[in-house]
Amino acid sequence: MTTCCLRSQCVLCLLAPGWPATGPMAEACGETHSRSISFRSMKCKFKFTSSFERHNDDNTFLVWVNEEEHLKVISIEKGGNMKAAFTRFCSGIQEVESKLNEKELEFMWNDHLGYILTCPSNLGTGLRAGVHVKLPNLSKRPEFEEVLKRLRLEKRTGGVDTEADSEVLDISNTDRLGFTEVQLVQVVVDGVKVLVEMEKRLEMEEGIDDLMPVQK
């Protein structure tokens, strides 16, 4: 389970130790993959060469500096405890923001658009709450895409920051703008609960028509 927030105008990194983007990168990536986070190559050759990542001791809270965004915060929780991942994320982002404020810096914010990010699709909260789940039966159904649409969810194979795995779906919130962070997390929690119940029905060769969500 991964909760991610991408926010700009950040110039520091918390929570050492970590790995530099140059040097023993192969060794670093090997361990990083094992905890479901992978480094990606820079999209632009003019990006800072000082891109790096820091994490806490148990690898459940990570901060990337100068990757896709100036700052990318990731909270990870194994199992189904989204509350733990979100609580850790909130505590961490508040600590980062307090350090910025000490240097008279702050995240870029607009009253109309919310947090300003490099990618326009992340404007607003910048929050992406994702759950890695296997849905072998439901994912093959022709109505699966419509179910996701009605739940305001989207799927990826693997995660936005993980290696692709055709058997693992990364289910996350479609929206970033127009909702609070708490609302978006709840959308994912409620939606995944429906998907899992559908998968259980199909595994027992039972119908799922009564579980079809209404359009939100």
Explain this structure:
The protein has helices spanning 25-34, 82-102, 144-150, 181-203; strands spanning 2-7, 18-20, 52-55, 61-65, 71-76, 109-110, 114-115, 127-133, 153-157, 169-173. The two termini are 24 Å apart. The radius of gyration is 18 Å and the shape is elongated. An 8-stranded antiparallel β-sheet has the order 2-3-4-5-1-8-10-9. The protein has a two-stranded antiparallel sheet with strand order 6-7. The longest helix has 23 residues, at 181-203. The protein is built from 4 helices and 10 strands, in the order ββαβββαβββαββα.
Write a concise keyword list for the protein shown above.
216 residues; single chain; 4 helices; 10 strands; alpha+beta
| CATH topology description of the largest domain | Creatine Kinase, Chain A, domain 2
CATH architecture level-2 label of the largest domain: 2-Layer Sandwich
Question: Would you identify the CATH H-level superfamily of the largest domain?
Answer: Glutamine synthetase/guanido kinase, catalytic domain
SSE succession: EEHEEEHEEEHEEH
Distance between the termini: 24 Å
The CATH top-level class label of the largest domain: Alpha Beta
What is the radius of gyration computed over CA atoms, rounded to a whole number of angstroms? 18 Å
Strand content: 15-25%
Enzyme class: transferase
InterPro entries: ATP-guanido_PTrfase, ATP-guanido_PTrfase_AS, ATP-guanido_PTrfase_cat, Gln_synth/guanido_kin_cat_dom
Binding site for ATP: 128-132, 155-160
Catalytic activity: creatine + ATP = N-phosphocreatine + ADP + H(+)
